[in-house]
C-alpha cells in the first residue's frame, strides 16, 4: 500500500501487474536479508552410500512370464553441501544434495 501511494504521487496509479511485481521484489529482498546459504561445495564421494539402479551394460533378465528388465548395477554416490545462516550471521543448518557417481559393478 505504501508503495502504490508513493508511485501514485510520482506518476499515476499502478496496474495490478506492477503492484504485484513491486511486492514480489520487496518480499524477495526481505527474505534475502533474513538469512542466506553459502555456495555449494565441490562434489565429494560418499564412501558409505551405494545406490542401485538399472544399467544397460549389465544386461537384461526375463521372469517366467516373459517380462524383461535391465539388470541392476552399483554406483557410488556423491554429495555437495552448503552452510546456512540467519540474519545475524549465526549458523542455522547445512543443506545437502546428492547425485549418482561412478559405476562400481554389476549387481548390488
What topology does this entry show?
Elements: H1 2-11, H2 16-34, E1 35-37, E2 44-54, E3 60-62, E4 68-70, E5 72-86, E6 91-106
Antiparallel strand pairs: 1-5, 2-5, 3-4, 5-6
Provide a descriptive summary of the structure in words:
This protein is an alpha+beta fold and about 110 residues long. The chain has 2 domains: about 1-35, no CATH class; about 40-108, no CATH class. Helices cover about 25% and strands about 45% of the residues. It has 2 helices and 6 strands; from the N terminus they run ααββββββ. It has helices spanning about 1-10, 15-35, and strands at about 35, 45-55, 60, 70, 70-85, 90-105. Strands 1, 2, 5 and 6 form a 4-stranded antiparallel β-sheet that branches. Strand 3 and strand 4 form a beta hairpin. The longest helix has 19 residues, at about 15-35. Residues about 1-10 have low confidence and may be disordered.
Strand content is over 45%
The stretches of 5 or more residues where confidence is low (pLDDT under 50) are: 1-9
Work out the number of β strands. Answer: 6
Radius of gyration: 26 Å
Helix content: 25-40%
Total of domains: 2
What's the N-to-C terminus distance?
60 Å
- Would you list the SSEs in sequence order as H and E? HHEEEEEE
User: What integer is the average pLDDT?
Assistant: 79
Number of helices: 2
Main β-sheet, in a few words?
4 strands, antiparallel
Class from secondary-structure proportions: alpha+beta
Choose one word for the global shape.
Answer: elongated
Amino acid at each position: 500500500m505504501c508503495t502504490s501511494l508513493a508511485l501514485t504521487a510520482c506518476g499515476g496509479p499502478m496496474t495490478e501487474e506492477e503492484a504485484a511485481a513491486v511486492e514480489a521484489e520487496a518480499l524477495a529482498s526481505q527474505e534475502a536479508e533474513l538469512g542466506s546459504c553459502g555456495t555449494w561445495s565441490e562434489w565429494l564421494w560418499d564412501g558409505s552410500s551405494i545406490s542401485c539402479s538399472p544399467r544397460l551394460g549389465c544386461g537384461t533378465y526375463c521372469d517366467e512370464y516373459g517380462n524383461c528388465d535391465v539388470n541392476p548395477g552399483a554406483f557410488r554416490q556423491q554429495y555437495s553441501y552448503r552452510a546456512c545462516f540467519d540474519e545475524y550471521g549465526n549458523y542455522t543448518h547445512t543443506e545437502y544434495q546428492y547425485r549418482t557417481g561412478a559405476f562400481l559393478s554389476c549387481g548390488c
